[in-house]
Amino acid sequence: MAILETIVIAFWAMLPAYVPNNAAVLAGGGRPIDGGRTWGDKRMLGDGKTWRGTAAGIVAGLALAGLLTVVAPAVADATGIDVPEFEPLAALGLAAGAMLGDILASFLKRRSGRQRGAMFPGLDQLDFVVVSLPLTALLAREWFFEVFTMGVIAVVVILTPILHVTTNMIAYKLGLKNEPW
Ligand code: CTP
Ligand code: MG
């Protein structure tokens, strides 16, 4: 069924962008990226964006992309769904773009006076899509347009907020995250 195939491909293609945020939550801590600096009377990014969390997130996204690339042919064989392999630059665009989007979101949150951990509906759920997709299109143009068809992009825009809300709720219940968003 075409719609199921599109959903599977969208989820698969976005995994290297989904996992960095969760890895950052698990690995976060240490020196904040903004080094405590403020802009005006507000923190530039806040203590929630650290070097360690960011590095761990990007490494986790790249590692997952590598793993998925190794198993893609077998998965495609077994399911009949043509799940994509990841070019290195595509993996980098997805993983680094996700972290960059999250950092940009914190920058915007601080500018709008929101404290660390405050929610920003919409931005919280889609920040990493908004940066990872254009960055991937920039770094691995051909790969991007082959994998991210209009249908896949539509599924990503619908699926991502749902996944984001549920995984964050789980992380909150498990005590890994301070807020359920
Ligand atoms: N984290 C990190 N580095 C990142 C992103 C996240 O260390 N680049 C860790 C931090 O410990 C952070 C936690 O993951 O507190 C949750 O991430 P997130 O919800 O994005 O940060 P918040 O603490 O909610 O801060 P903000 O309001 O800036 O989003
Ligand atoms: Mg948060």
Automatic annotation (TrEMBL):
It is found in: Cell membrane. The keyword Transmembrane applies. Pathway: Membrane lipid metabolism; glycerophospholipid metabolism. GO terms for molecular function: CDP-2,3-bis-(O-geranylgeranyl)-sn-glycerol synthase activity. It catalyses: 2,3-bis-O-(geranylgeranyl)-sn-glycerol 1-phosphate + CTP + H(+) = CDP-2,3-bis-O-(geranylgeranyl)-sn-glycerol + diphosphate. It is a multi-pass membrane protein. Keywords: Cell membrane, Lipid biosynthesis, Lipid metabolism, Magnesium, Membrane, Nucleotidyltransferase, Phospholipid biosynthesis, Phospholipid metabolism, Transferase, Transmembrane, Transmembrane helix. InterPro entries: CarS, CarS_archaea. The chain crosses the membrane at residues 53-76, 88-108, 143-163. Catalyzes the formation of CDP-2,3-bis-(O-geranylgeranyl)-sn-glycerol (CDP-archaeol) from 2,3-bis-(O-geranylgeranyl)-sn-glycerol 1-phosphate (DGGGP) and CTP. This reaction is the third ether-bond-formation step in the biosynthesis of archaeal membrane lipids. Belongs to the CDP-archaeol synthase family. NCBIfam families: PRK04032.1. This is CDP-archaeol synthase. It comes from Haloterrigena salifodinae. The lineage of its organism: Archaea, Methanobacteriati, Methanobacteriota, Stenosarchaea group, Halobacteria.
